[in-house]
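Input record, target 12 of the design panel.
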């Protein structure tokens, strides 16, 4: 499905008890333009990357807020920040809406910068999940992630300075991983 805006709102009404849920998951997009070797997203969606429109996401947030009183959302998409233009449009639309919804997302550290993070925070972003996976430059190449580890740390620190909580994903046990590679990942873990 190329036009994700054409999909109906998920059937939240089937959940009779939201239990301890603090944030409602809301699909923001599908697909990923990258080809990390450990990830199924690129295979599942055939690297066909697309985002829902800011207007539709905010409209769904309003519907959910009216029906269930939730004002905090987890935007579901592996690579929400890859299309900077769309993220900026979403953030500006959130600010202009005056709704003051809270939201979180997933991002790559090489597709955000301090300016974008500041805009995200101003628009209600209260958490970012960064998939760094390995602290080893050698493993970054082997797994096809291709992140600059020092830059990743810089972005994580910048998020912290903005008061933006981050979750950092790290993976240990890749078949090609050596003791030195694991040591680099542990350093990232300790730093974070």
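The sequence produced for target 12 reads:
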């Amino acid at each position: 499905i190329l036009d994700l805006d054409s999909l109906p709102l998920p059937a939240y009404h089937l959940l009779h008890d939201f239990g301890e849920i603090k944030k409602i998951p809301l699909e923001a997009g599908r697909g990923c333009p990258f080809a990390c070797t450990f990830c199924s997203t690129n295979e599942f969606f055939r690297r066909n990357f697309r985002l829902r429109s800011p207007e539709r996401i905010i409209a769904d947030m309003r519907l959910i807020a009216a029906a269930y009183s939730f004002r905090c959302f987890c935007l579901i998409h592996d690579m929400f920040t890859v299309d900077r233009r769309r993220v900026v449009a979403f953030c500006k639309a959130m600010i202009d809406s005056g709704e003051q919804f809270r939201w979180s997302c997933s991002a790559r550290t090489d597709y955000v910068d301090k300016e974008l993070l500041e805009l995200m925070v101003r628009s209600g972003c209260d958490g970012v999940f960064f998939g760094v996976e390995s602290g080893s430059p050698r493993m970054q190449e082997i797994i096809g992630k291709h992140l600059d580890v020092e830059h990743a740390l810089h972005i994580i620190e910048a998020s912290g300075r903005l008061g933006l909580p981050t979750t950092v994903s790290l993976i240990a046990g890749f078949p090609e991983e050596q003791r030195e590679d694991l040591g680099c990942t542990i350093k990232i873990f300790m730093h974070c």
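The mean pLDDT is 92.
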